[in-house]
Amino acid sequence: MKTTDHRGIGMTSPRTRLRMVDKLRQEGIRDEAVLAVMADVPRHIFVDEALSHRAYENVALPLGFGQTISQPYIVARMTELVRGGQPLEKVLEIGTGCAYQTCILSRLAKEVYSIERLSSLLDKARQHLRQLRIMNVRLKHGDGHQGIPEAAPFDAILMTAAASHVPPSLLEQLKIGGRLVLPLGTQDQYLYMIERTNEGYTETKLEAVKFVPLLAGTA
Length: 219
Ligand code: SAH
Hints:
The structure is a single chain. By secondary structure, the chain is of the alpha/beta class. Helix content is 27%, strand content 28%. The chain has helices spanning 14-26, 32-40, 72-83, 100-106, 119-131, 168-172, and strands at 61-64, 67-69, 88-94, 109-116, 137-141, 154-159, 174-184, 189-196, 201-209. A 7-stranded mixed beta sheet has the order 5-4-3-6-7-8-9. Strands 1-2 form a two-stranded antiparallel sheet. Helix 5 links the parallel strand 4 and strand 5. The protein is globular, with a radius of gyration of 16 Å.
């Protein structure tokens, strides 16, 4: 059990967080609702105590089990993209990890579902959400390729591990007008945004990114 105070002091203080948000703004994040939430959520809670002094640097950090917590810029960027300036009702995240991105989404959506394939990470994620008293998130141990058909359709789906192709179930579980944001590719990865329209799907290729791979099955 971690003892870190979640208000934070010194390198984990609210002021350090505001500096991180200033950098995100300089890097082109425009959605003020996203920036406000990132200024408020204590990211150091989600990383190992030994790394908490680095929690507000714009870098990916190790989570254990070979996985990484995404850098703040990419969390902000993907959240801005799925939101498209609109309040969100029901969101699905694939790849809970430490649940930092989950927590950001929980503050901008009514309900968040998040799937993680590694049960050991899911336990950590649960602890972090409990610590911050987040009640509108449902975590699921499973393979994100399937999505969660029984909770669909979603206004937004965000995937934080890179796939070689778009899992078809996720397309089906998107609402009309909904957005799926995900990294695609094996060697060279790019962020894609797929929107479901009345006629079908539109696909936009965005910036180059670097994510851990989306793997099959659970562990
Ligand atoms: N959003 C997380 C990112 C963690 S890295 C964070 O910021 O902490 C990506 C995560 O995706 C890892 O935890 C990995 O275990 C998980 N993952 C990989 N393949 C998956 C799959 N098929 N289904 C669900 N989760 C998966």
